[in-house]
Amino acid sequence: MIFLMLFLTSVFVALGTGVLAAWSDVKGMIIPNRLSLIVFVAFFPAWAAAYGAGGGVFAPFLSHVMAFGLVLAMTMLLFFLRLFGGGDAKLASAYALWMGLSGLIPFLVNMTVFGGLVALFSFIIKKTRPFKKVSETSWIGRLQAGESKVAYGVPIVMAAFFSFYSKDYLSFHELVKFLSTDS
Predict the structure, then answer these.
(1) Do the Cβ atoms of 47 and 14 come closer than 8 Å?
(2) What value does the mean pLDDT of the chain take?
(3) How many Cβ atoms from other residues are within 10 Å of residue 126's Cβ?
């Protein structure tokens, strides 16, 4: 039961922190480092709990570290090319740690698809300016002022939710395995 509780707490902390990161990005176009750090750190007790319960839901540890490193390298390159925000790079990398190499491509594809939808939404807001009372520093305020911005924290977190579901982190079948190995 302890492994299950530790695992679920870690998963919900990672997802809940992602919601806060997305909200922060929408509200002020910034993702605080501490939120990405929380997502990153939450992986380790989840992995330890899964390992203690017999492995199952996660790939080998090195696979997760390699996924993190690959996404960090790619997103930092995009950051230096001014195509991606630094907070976005850190948040995407933290979630890539959760995915491992086996879940990395689906996560990145989902992130790209959701990113395209958010970019389309951004374009529509920029052109139509439908909102009357918004903060000038918010994502929507900046769009309506004519800037071309995408709060990419939103599609990163959407992709993380979808990927956590796809990887069965919250499936009944996988969670029952924790109970069968716990004393």
Answers:
(1) no
(2) 92
(3) 17
pLDDT of residue 181: 60
Residue 26 tokens read as 């929408």
The SS3 call for residue 132 is coil
Tens-place pLDDT, residues 102-144: 999 999 999 999 999 999 999 999 999 999 889 999 999 999 9
Determine the residue type at 20: L
Question: Measured at the alpha carbon of residue 56, what is the angle toward residues 53 and 58, in degrees to the nearest 5?
Answer: 105
Nearest to 21 by CA among 58, 44, 13, 115: 13
Q: How far apart are alpha carbons 24 and 69 in whole angstroms?
A: 25
Question: Mean pLDDT throughout 28-54?
Answer: 94
139 exposure class (CB count in 10 Å sphere: 0-12, 13-18, 19+): buried
Convert the pLDDT of each residue in 135-176 to its tens digit.
Answer: 999 999 999 999 988 999 999 999 999 999 999 888 887 777
Which DSSP string corresponds to 25-93?
HHHHS---HHHHHHHHHHHHHHHHHHHHTTSTTS--HHHHHHHHHHHHHHHHHHHHTTSS-HHHHHHHH
